[in-house]
Amino acid sequence: MASKTHSSAGLALTGALDRLVEPPLRRNFLAFLGDYVIWGVGIAFVNPSTVLPALVRQLTDSPPVIGLVETVRSGVWFLPQLFVAWLLSGTVIRRRHMVIPFIISRSSMLLIVVVLLLLARTQPLTAAGLLLACLAFYFIMDASGSVPWFDLLSHSLPPHGRTRLMGLGQFLSGGLGIGVGVAVAAILADTRLPFPVNYSLLFILACSLFAVEVFVVSRVRVSRPADRRDRIPLAEFVPRLLGIFRRDLRFRRLLLVRLVVGASGLSTPFYIICALDRLGMGAASVGIFTAAQIAGGIAGAPFIALLAERRGVTSVIRIGASFALILPIIAISMVTAGLSLSHDLRIAVFGLLFVLNGAMANMTAAGFTNYMLDIAPAEQRPTYVGFANTFNGLILFFPIVGGWILGDSSWVALFAVTAAAALVGLVGTLRMSEPRQLRR
């Protein structure tokens, strides 16, 4: 009986996979899916929108320094990719180009544990600086592996396979990530784990999952002809990029719209600080809001592939941009009237903000990424990816500007500027044309 049950389960799993992706593509689909899910669960332990700003707040109360968390997470990740694209321009991209940078980046997270345990209590400002430096190194190396990751993914799966992978990956990592949020809340609220031991434990748990993630993604197999070409001279590479920017209207519009929508980063690292400092929520709320953000990602994930196939990736982008506008509006209402609400109601409303933030992050990431991969010519895909992501590195200034606005003005001013930028970005998405042949 047991063998029949196992056989039926295996047939059901095989049937489900066949509906997601063609059998010859199954191995790579599962390897990329495993990478996507395990990394998503690991990073939830040190969530850049909740855990990391709360950690830096323990080390300094300077808004610009807290804003640097988002600068490092997003801006620093984008900047190196154009240089990586140039380095790979004469290379047939292989698995090692992706795996080696990932090994280096994931291992570097352990340095943060050492910094926290040695310096967090005695030299908090030094610890904050070294923490940001370690995060910057992590994201630089992660970015170096991401250019080949996108190229290998595009070479391995067709457009519908990529959107299904991202939607399913966000759903699975989100489901597991809710449990992570509960664990984060318990760890940060446990009096037996004083600061900085509690945050150090979170980084150790993240690194443990990252080790499994790197092993899984190393199972990807991509067969390509070894037609190596000479690397394009840098003096020719830059004018070629400018030529792409001038000639390709859809690509140019993508870059500009994604940059403006990314202005939501003005407020991203400060939502959790507002909850803690302005609205008086306790440390355990960090875990609650982490779980809420992940739940939002789950809620949006099933619709990403469906919307992309039925209505196009532009629909995914537009809904994500709409959420980016709603977030600061909720924050303004909480800053002006939140203290009149009960503590539980404040938790609930701010929890909704983080739910929408999770959905927005997943939708804009999946939408803009797939739009870029769809419009990029296959032979120039690494160049398009590197150029687009490096250009988007300009968002690194947004959290710093947000910290400056908050320090020089008020919470309402910060969230109002964010809302205005988000409105411009939403209008810009209406000018983007759909690149796919839609399924009916």
Structure description:
This protein has about 450 residues and is mainly α. The chain has a single domain (about 20-220, about 235-430), classed as MFS general substrate transporter like domains (Growth Hormone, Chain: A, Up-down Bundle), CATH 1.20.1250. It has 18 helices and no strands. Helix 2 (about 25-45) runs antiparallel to helix 9 (about 195-215), helix 11 runs antiparallel to helix 18 (about 410-430) and helix 13 packs antiparallel against helix 14. The longest helix has about 35 residues, at about 125-155. The two termini are about 40 Å apart.
Low-confidence stretches: 8-13
**β-strand number:** 0
Number of domains: 1
- Number of distinct helices: 18
Per CATH, what is the topology? Growth Hormone, Chain: A
In which range does the helix fraction lie? over 70%
Q: Tell me the β content.
A: under 5%
Q: What is the CATH domain class?
A: Mainly Alpha
Major β-sheet profile: none
Which secondary-structure class do the elements indicate?
Answer: mainly alpha
CATH homologous superfamily, by name? Answer: MFS general substrate transporter like domains
CATH architecture verdict: Up-down Bundle
Mean pLDDT: 84
Shape, please?
globular
What is the alpha-carbon Rg in Å? 22 Å
Order of helices and strands: HHHHHHHHHHHHHHHHHH
Record the SSE blueprint.
Blueprint: H1 2-20, H2 26-44, H3 51-59, H4 63-78, H5 81-87, H6 95-119, H7 124-156, H8 159-189, H9 197-217, H10 234-247, H11 249-261, H12 271-278, H13 284-310, H14 313-337, H15 343-375, H16 381-391, H17 397-408, H18 411-429
Helix pairs in contact: 2-8, 2-9, 3-4, 4-7, 4-17, 5-16, 6-7, 6-9, 7-16, 8-13, 8-15, 11-15, 11-18, 13-14, 13-15, 14-15, 14-18
